[in-house]
Amino acid sequence: MASPQNMARSNILSKIRNQVAGNEENTARRAAVANRIANAPKGVIPERGQLSPRKRLELFCERAEAVQTTIASVESYDDIGEAVSDYLRSRNLPQALRMGQDPRLGNADWSTVPNLTREVGPTDGTDLVGLSHATTGVAETGTLVLTSGADNPTTVNFLPENHIVVIHASDIEGDYETALDRVRQMNGKGQMPRTVNMITGPSRSGDIEQTILLGAHGPRSLHIIVVDD
Amino acid sequence: MKITTPEFKSNAVEALANPTLQKALGNVEKGFIGKRQKAADALPEFEALRDNAKAIKDHTLAHLDLYLETYEEKVSESGGHVHWAQTAEEARNIVLEICRKAEAKTVTKGKSMISEEIGINDFLDENGIEPIETDLGEYIIQLRNEAPSHIIAPAVHVLKEQVEADFRAEHTHLDNDRNLEEPESLLDEARTVLRQKFLDADVGITGANFLIAETGTSIIVTNEGNGDLTQILPRVHIVLASIEKITPTLEDVSQILRVLARSATGQDMSVYTTFSTGPKREADVDGPDEYHVVLLDNGRTNMIGTEFQDMLRCIRCGACMNHCPVYHAVGGHAYGWVYPGPMGAVLTPSLEGVEKGGNLPNASTFCGRCEAVCPMRIPLPKMMRHWREREFERNLNPTVQRWGLKTWAWFAQRPALYSLGAKIAMRGLSAMAGRKGRLASLPLGRGWTKYRDMPAPEGRTFQAQWAAQRDKR
After folding, report:
1. Which of A92, A93, B235, B407 is the most exposed place for a label (fewest CB within 10 A)?
2. By the CB < 8 Å criterion, does B464 face chain A?
């Protein structure tokens, strides 16, 4: 006997099929669906992001700053330690942070900042500062794209009050389509990491009298360090 | 939730006489219209993106059965579960069963209109499971025991003084001396209280802005980050989504994302756009162990293949209500169910029946602003007209109105008589108005004259002027 849920499934699907296709053969419709998924047409791509890598980086920074993100630039991964330490000092934060196992961050030279303590692994919500590495970024709106895993646990993106994200300049793309296609290629077409976070500025809410306030439930501050080597 | 849509008229009268509400509603025009315009103007491709967004959804709806099958397959492949629900009741039972299996005591919730549509909060409560709204606006109205009055700004009808009073009443740990006058301090208080709830919850329920067929992914678009804490911290993540949320590919979603935030809040992009695919993997160190999607029909398949199919393109941005003079005047609660404003006026009769929802399509001046700003180019006024026709066909509108419409129709089919009648009526009204040129009362027109004078007609009839114009050319 069919379970109620299987009934619901077949009722919903057959009702739709009757309405949109009637008695028509579904071969052509199936081909149209398979074709769209296989070829994934791009549609309208805003001119704004279609720039040289240099200009693209400039636009990325400009758009990110427009949504209250702060930005620093360093010349190599070995300079990250000092950039992080400077930022924490500028915001009167303790020299401590939480990060994942990303080797690009782990292998950086942290010896220049011996007072900065780094905890590795997901956060339980007691950390003030999280450090992540972005997979890619999108210049058209200054958006970061982060993907889940042991390298960059998703909790680090949301629980700490302050979020610092490192991105390599060459990872910044012009538009969402190109950036998401890179995410898609990570595990093969049609496969996605468990969580992909597109982040555009620090957390905010306008729910009390439409007044925009930063730091609703996610980070109050978002700081990007661009590695531009 | 109890539907009070049949009482729209008295709801509206009450809303108009409520000074607190009227003050709060001022924030709708201030908070949304200019920002949307600015964001749309700043993107040269905005209109082309609207066209493409519409085309994407039209294509999807024409193949919805197949995309749903593809989506389900991909969710299963990634270790998630898809549950099908034809009705709100089926959906509620599915959610309860998942919560019971997880031995859930508390459930955190990201903002979801589908959860309002199926009334999941009351149902969980009745079954001994505590639902906790975590979106700031939803949290405020949960404290107030109210329904959202706007689909993206649920507490837009509340003033900050009211929020302060609600917090003081509910958060009994608060010191009387603690200053809560500014929105910042209210936000801090909510953040602190809810943080522990996020960490303690057994199940997290979110909605979905999109479901991607290509990858079996659900997407939420938010600004606060509460939806993310809801879906990564508890052991079980439940997504509540209606069937029309399906979008074919990552590229198609990217296209629609560009018009969504701009139309909604006037942001170029919302702060968090999060893609969730299945439960956590072996390599993941956080995220849920179980991932469930409840696919809800609840009347939507009845709209497919009808003149109301276009409504299923709706992406719930709220632009139509933000620009609606009727919504500005009466707010969202007067509409009496989950969805207010022009989109609600079309959707409510579609989902709840014209008997209950038939009042709403009449709550429109047909000014057309909703259609002008709808990112998905949904012909909202046209569909409201269709509902008026259905209402008339089914004898649902009041006798006086029907009699009036029939009389008008009789004249309209006899142009000469119509023209003569119009002339006589004009002269009559002018004479009645006298030198003042305004009428303080009118037979059969009390609905108008109770609140304002009726200006007396001047000059010649429209038909006479039209004829004169034509002769000139």
Report:
1. A92
2. no
